[in-house]
């Protein structure tokens, strides 16, 4: 029930034409497919799930951003 209140609050406070939704039951493979198709993705920089979504999006030239991550201070990393 608490997540429903949070989603309602976010939808109410957003000034953009954006709707926040939650799909039940949660199915990670469906979530990844939706994130890959979205117009824009904002992820959590410490989440493995977000890393999978970001990698998929970047491989297809789509935009990716992370909460509380300053691009100016980013350190380049090498992929394995």
How are strands sequenced across the largest beta sheet?
1-2
Element string (H = helix, E = strand)? HHEHE
**Share of residues in helices:** 40-55%
| Unreliable sequence segments | none
Number of domains: 1
Query: Would you report the number of β strands?
Result: 2
- CATH level 1 class label: Alpha Beta
Using the coordinates shown, work out and report the CATH topology.
Rossmann fold
Please work out how many helical segments DSSP would assign.
3
Largest sheet at a glance? 2 strands, parallel
Shape: globular
Tell me what you see in this structure:
The chain has 80 residues and is mostly helical. 42% of the residues lie in helices and 8% in strands. It is built from three helices and two strands, in the order H-H-E-H-E. A two-stranded parallel sheet has the order 1-2.
Question: Secondary-structure map with pairings?
Answer:
Layout: H1 2-13, H2 28-37, E1 41-43, H3 48-59, E2 64-66
Parallel strand pairs: 1-2
Helix pairs in contact: 2-3
Task: Name the descriptors.
single chain, 80 residues, mainly alpha, Rossmann fold, two-stranded parallel sheet, 3 helices, 2 strands
Question: TL;DR?
Answer:
The chain has helices at 2-13, 28-37, 48-59; strands spanning 41-43, 64-66. The protein has 80 residues and is mostly helical.
